[in-house]
Design a protein that fits this description.
Blueprint lengths: L2 H21 L12 E6 L15 E6 L4 E3 L2
Parallel strand pairs: 1-2
Antiparallel strand pairs: 2-3
Length: about 70
């Protein structure tokens, strides 16, 4: 995947997430203030080791609907 394809994919996921939040505004309550969102492709395993530690990361598995996952 080229950098351009990767960026376009991430932009598309972000807009899909915004649309989902518009349809389900209660989702905002599950995101802590100052959190960084991390979108994980549904076909990729979730890695917790070896990642840079960041404060308040909320991860979302990318499917047809977005759901918070516990890290």
């Amino acid at each position: 995947m080229t950098k351009k394809e990767y960026v376009e994919r991430n932009i598309g996921i972000t807009f899909d997430f915004v649309r989902h939040v518009i349809d389900h505004p209660e989702l905002i309550d599950t995101i802590p203030d100052g959190a960084e969102l991390d979108f994980i492709d549904k076909n990729m395993p979730v890695k917790t080791q070896g990642r840079i530690k960041r404060k308040k990361v909320t991860r979302y598995k990318v499917q047809h609907i977005f759901e918070p996952i516990k890290a």
